[in-house]
Structure formats: C-alpha cells, structure tokens
Amino acid sequence: MALRFKLRQLEMFVAVAETLNFRKAAARLHMTQPPLSRQISELEGALGIKLLERSNQGASLTAPGARFLDEARTLLAACDAMGARFCGSLGPVVDTLRVGVTTVVDTGTLQQLLPVLEAAMPGLELDFKRQGSVRSVHDLLQHRLDAAIIGMPTETADVTVLTVRQLYRDQFCVALPASHRLRKRKVIGLGELNDDLLFWFKRDLNPGFYDACEAVFRQAGYAPQRAPEPADHHVLLSLIANQGGVALIARSLCNIRRSGVVYRDLKESELLFIDVSVAYLASAGKAALPRFVEQLVRFYGNGEEGRAPA
After folding, report:
1. Which 8-state DSSP code applies to residue 64?
2. Which residues in the chain land under pLDDT 50?
3. Is the dihedral of CA 210, 212, 215, 219 positive or negative?
4. Distance from first CA to last CA of the chain, Å, rounded?
5. CB 199 within 8 A of CB 228
6. Which of its termini does the chain have fewer beta carbons within 10 Å around, N or C?
7. Dist CA 169 CA 171 (whole Å)
8. Which residues in 230-255 are b (16+ Cβ under 10 Å) and which e?
9. Any residues with CB less than 8 A from the CB of 135 and at least 6 apart, and which?
C-alpha cells in the first residue's frame, strides 16, 4: 500500500524537530499544541516509526527521526522549488502581507483562518508577528506592518490615517485555581475576588485598554492586590495552578486547557471585553490588502458581538 502523508505534517515535524519543544513549534506554526501533537502522531503512525521522544522537558529526535528530518527538509525544499518554477504559468504570487496579531487572540483561531485565506487568495504569503496592540499600531505607522489584528480600545483615535474595522467582541472571564472557594459558581462578580491576587498587565502596554478596565473595576468596587501578568499565557496558567491568584482573560483563550485551572463567567462581562479589530493603512498600496481585510471580516462574522471562533 502506498505511503501517504501531508506536506503540512512534514512542516509540523520540522518545526518540532528544530525547536525540540511542542509549545514553541505550535506558536511558530500559529496553532495550538493538541492538533500539532495529533498530526505528529498520525505521521509516526503512517511511517510506522517513532520520530520523537516526548518528556516534560520537551522533545528529542530518535535516530530514525534525525534521518527523516533530512529527508523532510529535502522534500519541502523541492516543493518550494517546483512552486517557484511553475508560478509563472500557474499565476504570480498575489502579495506578501506582514500582519501583527495581538496576544489576546488564540493561535488556534489563526489555524482555522489560514485554510480559508489559502482558498480565497491563492499565492498570498502571510508573515504573522505576535505582539501587543500598541506595538502593532506603532509598526503600522512606521510601515513595518501592512495590517494588524488588535484589541480595542487601543489608542488609535488621534491616528486618522488608520482604518479600524471590528471583527468580533471577546468578553472576559476569570481563570481560577481548581481549588478556589468559588469554583462551584457559574458566574462570579469582580467584587467577590477582592481577596485574591490578580495577575494584571502594566498600563504602558496598552493605556487605552487599561484605563477602560480600571473604570469597570471602580464601578464594581474591585481593588485587589496585583502581580505582573506573564506575557506567555501558558506561564500565566501555570502560576494560577501552582501558586494561586486569578486572571481576567478573553473568553476565546478558555480553549487552552490546563490542569489545576478552571474558567468561570464574569458578572461584569458586558462591561469588560475586548473588541478584536483589524487596523490598516488604506493608503499602503498593497494590492492584496483590501481583499484580505474583507476575508477577515467575513470569517469572523462581520463584527457580530460575542462571536469568537471556538
């Protein structure tokens, strides 16, 4: 029987083999760890060999895995070369777009988006950059990015050259230790969490969003002790599970499961939310940009409130 596997599986294997870490490889591929792990297991099943040894410290190549890595790289390079040879007859590359992506968007959402874009815009190359919304706005103005998926409110009001279109509203929930006294509650009010340490970001990361949240906190009588919020979401969940404390996070990030952490709805979720939007320079002159934006708006549901892809 003919051996069958997907080129995408080879790309995933190479990413894990080069980083020796499933979490880092998933971030590089703009996806979450579970589907990455499943695809690697499927590839190993198709080949009938073990390519990687897994451990709590990361991953390591087996002897067959090291040999297969060389073959995989060769095959992927050959496919790239074939594409370069035929692109003149099959149609030119549409464009390359540099896109900033706020860290509040789950990488699994991007993984769902990519096949849609590939089907709608063959030849489009995307260079994603995960970073904060304020940094993305700055990079847009410096022409280092062509578009950015940002969280609003972000201070763009004075930047009249930017066009901002809402994609969806992502309401906040609370991440708690699994042993928390309120773990059995379905909905929790902010005021009930005053005695818990809050992992929270610094104002200079996004002053507009920070101030909007502070207004809600004051209205709810919420004034907890705070600790710096780690930039890495997995590190944040680990701190909650092992050391206690709580975090307020976008509901779409609840897709990321962590032993020892539970998620609960917030009473103030109608007031505490992120409007995930796409920002861009209409005058950027990128031919693919308008259609890219329309595909984003269509994929995310034309900015319908409360819709975030599962």
Report:
1. H
2. 1-2, 88-90, 157, 302-310
3. negative
4. 37
5. yes
6. N
7. 6
8. eeebeebbbbbbeeebbbbbbbbbbb
9. 100
Contact 201, 232 (CB under 8 A): no
Distance CA 25, CA 27 (A): 5
Query: Which amino acid belongs to residue 138?
Result: H
Helix (H) or strand (E) segment spanning residue 264: strand 261-266
Place of tokens 């929930």: 173
Residues 217-247 have pLDDT tens digits of 999 999 999 999 988 888 899 999 998 999 9
Q: Which of 132, 143, 140 is CA-nearest to residue 162?
A: 140
> Which 3-state string (H, E, C) describes 171-238?
EEEEEEECCCCCCCCCEECHHHHCCCCEEECCHHHCHHHHHHHHHHHHHHCCCCCEEECCCCHHHHHH
